[in-house]
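User: I'm curious whether this sequence folds into something compact or stays loose and floppy. Could you predict its structure so I can see for myself?
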Amino acid sequence: MSDSTSDLAALARGCCGIARTAGAAIMHVYASEFSVERKDDNSPLTHADLAAHRAILDGLSILTPQIPVLSEESAEQAAWNVRRQWVRYWLVDPLDGTREFVKRNGEFTVNIALIEDHRPTLGVVFAPVMNEMYWAWRSGGAWLDDGAERRTNELRSHKRRNPLIVAGSRSHADVRLLAALEKLGPHELKALGSSLKFCRAASGEVDLYIRYGLTSEWDTAAGQCVLEQAGGRVLTMDGEPLRYNTKESLLNPDFLACGDPGIDWPALISASAHG
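Assistant: Here's the prediction. I'll summarize afterward.
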């Protein structure tokens, strides 16, 4: 398969369909009296996670049978000595924001990303409760179908506001974030779950998302692609683009996502956090 923009566009359309199928499986469980189990790291797991996982694996096996898949729900099967050889693979979070799912606040998503040479080149984020579909691919822009009269909008990030609007996790707080925000100056903190934080930055609704603490690569890849193709950036605190499949651990470093790439946000955050 070639890596042309038209190929990626076709794959993106296919992934949107797969994400909707996974979203329907999630909503079937969401409407029921579901049970909640706990993984080894004490994070929640529901039948919706597993149903979406199966739907995505089935869809991708038909769409691209030759491309391997790394999903949160089967990550233990992808040994480092195998996946370190992958140049191209799917990175999937079948249900991003399981805590939000359990709380029934609607702020959860289906994330599907294509990783090539350690960078996301295609990303699909679907929020089934809101019926919002975000998708993007390399050199193809970022797009939103918000379910209203079949309207599709191209996303463009924007220059920073004053005061800043900063997206924060609804389920994870960190004293380093609070200290950084205090020194950044006037701001409004907007609590959001899942990869919606990247998408809101891509659509211009928020300026910044700062994340200290543990996240996994499947949490960020699809949203990163959407934001980058809208003109924003996702950077480590060293100012480097967030990269994938570079080490045995699937945990991300601390990072930030911004809509305005003309500002040296890592320097500001570092000065704020340590100044």
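Summary: The helical segments are 5-30, 47-63, 80-83, 98-103, 175-184, 196-202, 217-229, 265-274. The chain is about 35% helix and 25% strand.
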